[in-house]
Write a structure and sequence with these properties.
The protein is an alpha/beta fold. The chain contains 27 helices and ten strands. It has a six-stranded mixed sheet, with helices on both faces. The N terminus is likely disordered. This is Ferrous iron transport protein B.
């Protein structure tokens, strides 16, 4: 027994096929909250964490993208291959490979385990999802499996609090000796078959009857797409319907705070900064938290349920009309949350050209940062009334805006892909088991989202609105000047300078000013409008400042609002997206192309919308 704490940290790596629960184990070991999702390709980059075992050993653990084989076919798999081989940029191979396998799917996963074993490095096998395997009536003889593989085997449950107990005990034991590789010409499939026959009773778990029945509906050529359409539709309806009462509450709260601060502080720069800058600006963005959380709740549920790869499969024919494959579906769906993770998720796409096109169109998926802009304008200009008795007009318009984004993306892809899909074979995608999302995980996911959003409001958005407040307040007008003070400020002047370019779209100078901070984060446009109007409207009540929705209809025509909505469907301005495109493609040209075409589309579509709206 080793009584001395080792001087060196043990470096381990979690490797295995996609979707076997590596990240779930990683989170369990390190207490972190990396993305866990029920489809292949949730993790696309190497993540590092640290923890201490019960006996006090210091461990550094890597979570890696899942791989089907060490012969990598996509960029995310290449990371895993390189780390295992010890050829990853200046990083030695891990001391111990923790090979994770889905116990319910050993026929597939054991082959990769054998491939790893051929590396001849110390390794242990973590048979994960042992809970699901037992539920399916499988019995696995662990000692025998360990003997046949020549490596220690432990059972784990990535989603149970003490699910990594045996793995931790194994990590506290001395490092196992490296396995002896099989002769190079061994037929690994034959070995898998033999091991399964020896160690597993009921090696071919019949997927439960319920699951098969579900798939008959979900993958049905007619019902399948219909179910998908209804699902997406309900999703957008609820984003509006469920959020409204909560939003009204936050809105009123913000107005009340503004009023109190207004009464407490004497007239002056400080009061203006707090009321017109921070509360009107950042406060008007906070209002949208409920909507963003509802959207994320849906995305989390879809991700955990196992439905997404099935939707990708259903949409493969549609995507191929645009010259893409169903593989682009999950990256594009992630882009509804934010284009940054969406673009990173394209690493799972093997075909480089498909990957580039998917990156190109990801910004057209309406990200959650655009939701505040949409909702503000819809709430202010689209009447709240029922359509056909049960649909909500505002939700309908929101759905329409998302749909326009998606259709435009497919068109752009079609054009970028010209000759149709390349020589890529039929879509091969694993359909994971259906899983009921765990309410605790959903809650954790949502609080994490809320935290990120509020952090963003507290940092980026507050600083940008304060900056905008300063630009809108200074320089002060000269003595005896007439007209609103904001006309003399820097922001006022910039807005008036930009006006000739944007006036054809029906934008006024206040909108022009709001477009600038919107570059950094789109939702700031909302805060910026609130600030500009709060300062500009000398006579406005302080509690009005936070209630932009009531202010806008007095200042804008419906045509202007529609034009701005159209602008934001394409809205090229998001620095974070452009930065991640640069990182993922290592090409400034791609960045220029994306920014350029988005700007052109935004301009043309807003112009068309404005002119058409004026006609009616
Ligand atoms: N029943 C059960 N489900 C699990 C277990 N471990 C993970 N899961 C679920 O399995 C799915 C995949 O988990 P992940 O941790 O994302 O898998 P991964 O291996 O990191 O996947 P990639 O990053 O795509 O390679 C998720 O839906 C998890 O909730 C387990 O031990 N039992
Ligand atoms: Mg993962």
């Amino acid at each position: 027994m080793n009584m001395i704490t080792p001087a060196r940290t043990l470096r381990i790596a979690l490797v295995g096929n996609p979707n076997c629960g590596k990240t779930a184990l990683f989170n369990l070991l390190t207490g972190s909250r990396q993305k866990v999702a029920n489809y292949a390709g949730a993790t696309v980059e190497r993540k590092e964490g640290r923890f201490t075992t019960p006996q006090g050993h210091d461990i550094r653990v890597l979570d890696l993208p899942g791989a089907y084989s060490l012969v990598a076919t996509s960029p995310d798999e290449a990371v895993t291959r390189d780390i295992c081989a010890g050829t990853y940029r200046g990083e030695a191979a891990p001391d111990l490979l923790v090979c994770v396998a889905d116990a319910t799917n050993l026929r597939l996963h054991l082959r990769f385990v054998l491939e790893m074993r051929q590396l001849g490095r110390p390794m242990v096998l973590a048979l994960n999802m042992i809970d699901a395997a037992r539920r399916k009536g499988m019995e696995i003889d662990l000692p025998r499996l360990a003997a046949e593989l020549g490596v220690p085997v432990v059972a784990t449950v990535g989603i149970r609090r003490d699910g990594a107990r045996d793995l931790l005990a194994q990590l506290d034991a001395p490092l196992p000796p490296p396995p002896v590789p099989l002769p190079a010409d061994t037929d690994l499939h034959a070995v898998v078959r033999r091991i399964l026959a020896d160690c597993v009773t009921r090696a071919h778990p019949v997927s439960s009857e319920l699951e098969e029945r579900l798939d008959r509906w979900v993958l049905h050529p007619v019902w399948g797409p219909l179910i998908l359409a209804v699902l997406l539709f309900v999703m957008f309806q609820t984003v509006f319907a469920w959020a409204q009462p909560l939003m009204d509450g936050i809105d009123a709260g913000m107005g009340w705070i503004g009023e109190q601060v207004g009464h407490l502080l004497p007239e002056g720069a400080l009061r203006s900064l707090l009321v017109n800058g921070v509360i009107a600006g950042a406060g008007s963005v906070v209002t949208f938290l409920p909507q963003i959380l509802i959207l994320f709740l849906w995305i989390l549920v879809l991700e955990e349920s196992g439905y997404l790869p099935r939707a990708a499969f259903l949409l493969d024919p549609v995507m191929s009309l645009a010259g893409l494959s169903g593989r682009s579906f999950i990256p594009l769906l992630s882009s509804f949350a934010c284009a940054v993770p969406g673009i990173m998720a394209t690493r799972t796409i093997q075909n480089p050209r498909d990957r580039l096109v998917t990156i190109l169109i990801a910004p057209l998926m309406t990200c959650s940062a655009r939701l505040p802009v949409y909702t503000l304008l819809i709430g202010a200009f689209i009447p709240h009334r029922a359509v056909w008795g049960f649909l909500n007009m505002q939700g309908l318009v929101l759905f329409g805006l998302y749909a326009v984004g998606i259709l435009s993306a497919l068109l752009v892809a079609r054009i970028a892909r010209r000759g149709g899909r390349g020589q890529e074979a039929a879509l091969l995608m694993e359909l994971p088991a259906y899983r009921l999302p765990n309410p605790r995980d959903l809650l954790l996911g949502l609080t994490e989202r809320a935290r990120i959003f509020l952090m963003r409001v507290g940092t980026t958005i507050v600083s940008l609105t304060v900056l905008l407040w300063a630009l809108s307040s200074f320089p002060a007008p000269p003595a005896g000047a007439t007209g609103p003070a904001i006309d003399w400020s820097l922001a006022g002047r910039i807005g008036h300078l930009m006006l000739p370019v944007f006036a054809p779209l029906g934008f006024n100078w206040q909108i022009c000013v709001a477009l600038i901070p919107g570059l950094a984060a789109r939702e700031v446009a909302v805060g910026a409008l609130a600030t500009v109007y709060a300062i500009g409207d000398a006579g406005a009540d302080t509690d009005q400042a936070a209630m932009l929705g009531q202010l806008l209809p007095a200042h804008w025509s419906v045509a202007t609002a529609l034009s701005l909505l159209a602008w934001y469907v394409y809205a090229p301005q998001c620095v974070a997206t452009l930065a991640v495109i640069r990182r993922e493609t290592a090409s400034w040209r791609m960045v220029a192309i994306t920014a350029g075409y988005l700007f052109a589309l935004a301009y043309v579509m807003a112009l068309l919308t404005y002119r058409l709206a004026l006609l009616f």
